[in-house]
Fold this sequence. Notes:
This protein has a domain at 8-82. The chain contains two helices and no strands.
Amino acid sequence: MKREPLSLRDYIGVGLVFAFVSVLFGLMFKNIPEKNEQLIVYMLGQLSGFVATVVSFHYVLNKSSEKATENTGKAFDALKAAAESTPTTAGESKALREGDSVTLEKAP
Length: 108
């Protein structure tokens, strides 16, 4: 299986995770002034939300998208096989063509 090159979205995700871990590690060795404590807590909460979004995108959405793509491919393969297995001759085709008319009957 060939890997796709990293996109800008991947670089942003790696940057956010790195920033979050760096800030957490850096705050272990800093004394935070009491008046700035709430600001730091708020910013860490925002950054952790971004990191959670990146992780969920890469590990949850990509897997479900792969499964949906696989299921769609199987459905199209089944439709193709059904269309190819139905023997028809030129005169027996039930497909509508230009100029054909259709009559609908209302069921009782």
